Amino acid sequence: MTTKPLTLAEKVWNDHLVAKGENGTPDLLYIDLHLVHEVTSPQAFDGLRLAGRPVRRPDLTIATEDHNTPTWDIDKPIADPTSRTQIEALRNNAKEFGIRIHSLGDAEQGIVHVVGPQLGLTMPGITVVCGDSHTSTHGAFGALAMGIGTSEVEHVLATQTLPLKKFKTMAINVEGTLRPGVTAKDIILAVIAKIGTGGGQGYVLEYRGSAIRSLSMEARMTICNMSIEAGARAGMVAPDQITFDYLKGRPHAPEGADWDAAVEYWKTLPTDEGAKFDAEVFLDANTLDPFVTWGTNPGQGVSLLDSVPNPEDISDPNEKAAAERALEYMDLKPGTKMKDIRVDTVFLGSCTNSRIEDLRAAAAVIQGKQKADGLRFMVVPGSARVRLQAESEGLDKIFKDFGAEWRFAGCSMCLGMNPDQLAPGERAASTSNRNFEGRQGKGARTHLVSPLVAAATAIRGTLSSPADLASPADLLEGQAN
Amino acid sequence: MEKFEIFTGVAVPLRRSNVDTDQILPAGYLKRRTKPGFEDALFSAWRNDPEFVLNQEPYKHGQVLVAGPDFGTGSSREHAVWALRDYGFKAVFASKFADIFRGNSGKQGLVTGVITEEDTEKLWAAIEANPGSSITVNLVEQTASIGDLVVHFEIDEYTKWRLLEGLDDIGLTLRDEQAITDFEAKRGAWMPKTLPARN
To answer: What is the pTM of this model?
Structure first.
């Protein structure tokens, strides 16, 4: 008897079935890890209190503060009273329900999607949820990781399970070798431009192919992070030796016989030969350029070498109207070369690109260079731990000497829930994940870029890649996110 | 959750695609710790524009939204659903919805019906031909109708059943309590645990 070949996503799904749905009801899946932050949880804890329900598994739950936290003066009381009370609510809820929390000032505080992997809590083959759409980040380990709403947060707190409708599977095949200066961020921006912001709806994406296999864990996290920008419920990469090496020795990674048992299981997870995906997409890594967005959704992106597109050339009436609206909001004219677009601010941070490799890559580009006149460069490490690591390597000094603001960890300007916002009309090159209208401040204009493009842009003042810098020595070899 | 069968209310044409949840509810409003009370947050940036559809009589009193494709993309914030509901909306129709938004809606009693792009155009035309016209949403029959125009909408059977019955998800799941406990007994020893903390 032969067993049906399965995809990675199907294996993880099957191994978490608590109850199989019948007659159109969803399957009930067990949740191995629940990450909690201050924004999407208060109403969930209120719900538990009202119903008199406890948190079923505090030992599978962890909380941190990230969306509202200031990135300056973190030793002082939080100035914004609504931000302060929301964070206090999380602290009180964590205490009342017995949940581990890493608060501002703690070495493990930071963006929830940076904290989970760095503690070794995110592992291959587990299910991860969080009341945050960028939970897809954790799929880089071969975990099934999904963003959920507040009702579902309450549901997981109460039951450690979620009723879920089965997803379809989509293979994103990226073959070839990235050229110097082209990174994981460019891959995912190109994928989203190709399949659109709704292209992944109903799917779990699996990123495959030689270009993906050669990426570091942090680069894989960058890619999986933005799966949601293609509308996908999750994105995954099969675990391999790079995954195991990254995990080994982290605080919560298994040890001894448990480690051996885990690795043995993890090695069974990659998609079987002959398994069928419901859809397949192909991208050539060899010919990829640095990618940047021109519009107000992450699918509105082009090669940095291209120009702002003309809506007249777009045949789909909805997309054409969206492009016209986006150009008006972004104050851009069709045909303008992307490299001629001048920015006011560069933001290096967010759950997409704030890990140590991102900071190293950007620091290598700016070292010994002059920042563009009048440009603001904000560097926000993803976690307090990343900040400490960067300081131990002297990266903070490189950023400060360059004239950048070296800040404390949090979501910061990615969504501007704290004071880190752009002024109306201001334009930013941002390593974050969303260029929506008003996302980084009312009337603010966002171009999504990689850390390398962010760094080169901070030097030249216009959207640039390291290849545009004067000396050939600036061309970076190797991989960065 | 309240039961939903048939509802009649004022229809609003939102002629935009890719309406992301940052537009439905900007991040500044995420700091609130309670619900309800999010009606002022709904489309708050767009509502600064006097031309915006919800600033027009009679659309101001809208209860059923007909929008372009890819509605509810982006952030998982359920607050976007609360804002629509608190404003008075009972149903949203579009040719495509983002998955998380759609899931959140089903848990909060907001009907999200998938209609074809052609039917979207027909509904927009019918509403604009007679602003303030009532639309009837029949969840049992899965139809939305304005006068003689009747369009069919798609919604998954399970969400439909829960909306018709007004059922609470957690209560439904806890009927499987024994299965959850049995599953927990079989989990691998290497599985991650947050407690005790090992930093």
So the answer is: 0.94
Pick the residue from chain A with its C-alpha nearest to B101: A149
Smallest CA–CA distance, residue B19 to chain A, in Å, is 10
Interchain contact, A231 vs B33, CB within 8 Å: no
Which of A82, A132, A417 is nearest residue B76 as measured by Cβ atoms?
Answer: A132
Contact criterion met (CB < 8 Å) for B103 and A149: yes
Q: Which of residues 159-218 of A touch B (CB under 8 A)?
A: 159-161, 163, 165, 197-198, 201-202
Is the CB of A251 less than 8 angstroms away from the CB of B79? no
Q: Which residue of chain B comes nearest to A146, CA vs CA?
A: B100
Is the previous residue joined to A290 through a cis bond, with omega within 30 degrees of 0?
A: no
Does A329 reach chain B within 8 Å, measured CB to CB?
no
Q: Residue A235 is inside which H or E element, if any?
A: strand A234-236
**Biggest CA-to-CA distance, chain A:** 70
State whether A32 and B28 contact (CB < 8 Å).
no
For A302, the token pair is: 């082009």
How is residue A193 written in tokens?
A: 């431009």
The one-digit pLDDT tens for each residue of chain A (481 residues) are 468 999 999 999 999 999 999 888 999 999 999 999 999 999 999 999 988 999 999 999 999 999 999 999 999 999 999 999 999 999 999 999 999 999 999 999 999 999 999 999 999 999 999 999 999 999 999 999 999 999 999 999 999 999 999 999 999 999 999 999 999 999 999 999 999 999 999 999 999 999 999 999 999 999 999 999 999 999 999 999 999 999 999 999 999 999 999 999 999 999 999 999 999 999 999 999 999 999 999 999 999 999 999 999 999 999 999 999 999 999 999 999 999 999 999 999 999 999 999 999 999 999 999 999 999 999 999 999 999 999 999 999 999 999 999 999 999 999 999 999 999 999 999 999 999 999 999 999 999 999 999 999 999 999 999 999 975 544 454 445 5
- The C-alpha atoms of residue A194 and residue A189 are separated, in whole angstroms, by 9
What is the spatial distance between Cα A382 and Cα A114, in angstroms, rounded to a whole number? 6
* CB hemisphere CA count around A380 (13 angstroms): 32
DSSP B38-82: -GGGTTTTGGGSTTSGGGSTTGGG--EEEE-SSBTBS---THHHH
Which of B18, B161, B180 has its CB closest to that of A297?
B18
Which residue in the set A23, A58, A123 is minimally distant from B195, CB to CB?
A58
ipTM of the complex: 0.92
**Distances in Å between the alpha carbon of A371 and those of A19, A346, B100, B172?**
58, 11, 41, 58
Q: Is A123 on the interface with B (CB under 8 A)?
A: yes
Contacts of B74 in chain A (CB under 8 A): 133, 228-229, 434, 436
